[in-house]
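Quick one: structure tokens for this chain, please?
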Amino acid sequence: MRAARAAETAARHSYGRLLSWLAWQWRDIAAAEDALADAFALALTRWPVDGVPSAPDAWLLTTARRQLLMATRRERLADDPRLTVLWPSDQDAQPEALAIPDSRLRLMLVCAHPAIDVGVRSALMLQTVLGLDAASIASAFLVKPEAMTKRLVRAKRKIKMAGIRYEEPEHADWPARLEAVLEAIYATYTLHWGSAEEATGRQLADEAIYLARLTSTLLPSEPEALGLASLLSYAQARRPAQRDALGGFIPLDEQDTDLWDRGLLAQADALLAAAATHGRPGPYQLEAAIQAAHMEGLKTHSVPWSDMARLYESVQALAPTLGAAIGHAVAVAHSANDPHSGLRLLDAIEKSRVADHAPWWAARARLLAWARLDAAASEAYRRACALTADPAVREWLTRRLDSLRQRDKGGSLGSLV
């Protein structure tokens, strides 16, 4: 059991780093994936017998390298004497833990190569660099898992057939690839909200913040890189207040603002201010500004809903995402003190985009309850519950539904607004 837990921990925390390093060194994503899978399979066989190595990541890396070298020997270099120089000995099985600082970002830039279809670049990064499965990636991009699997397979085939080189692009080429990289980092962070497993959520959040900070440091003249680092820092600053002592979910407008991480808030403010000096606003900067305004408003008990509605309009003009449309509808409703104004905006969104989208149903339920359309609100809360993966959020939505039922029996509106 200890060996299995150690392998699971290594897979959760190190898969992306190990795969990035192997793929970068061998210039072959598919081969690196196969070799690393073989290494994990061998770990589950060997570790229960030999004991868990002192450096599991290094053991896995060495074993995967051996698998790649064996495959190379079989396929191309059976008689090449140079191969024996590269061949690892048994004494190499547990080298000191390796530091792989920037391989992930390098591989992300490769995945953003102009020859790869724009629509799959970010998804390819999530699978290749972070080791996420197609189903998780599909949920981040609001598509069906089968469709995402096909896209990823085609992309990898194209990399191999087109002979796309695993070379770090010139610094001048980075801005052209930046959008896809930032999109992948943002998707990584948003996935942690939907993770029912706290450890997995923490890892995804930490990975995303690390990569966002690294990107903004390497490209300090790119305001959107700074904006994304700011946005994720604002979100992460709220993390200590998101759960109660029993792990229950606490929505933003009910959080104890004294629990927010002041250090992260200061960093987020500084990053957003640095981005603003460039005079080139973009979606991540605007989203960060919305977060800053909302959080400051909650601290001062005066949320600037009108300002937030205008910021959401600007976001939608640049990047008409579903999340921005929902946020805009809620902000408009509060700005006008009229739930129907928000409901009209929510209902104007194409139905196929929101039918299986839990946040849309939750926002609609909230506005319907505010409008005292209780039957419709109850149905919306039920749909939101059914579509929500996180048990804590699902329990919170269920309590809202129960409160609505109590109101039907003569209770007050309470916290439903």
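The chain has 20 helices and no strands.
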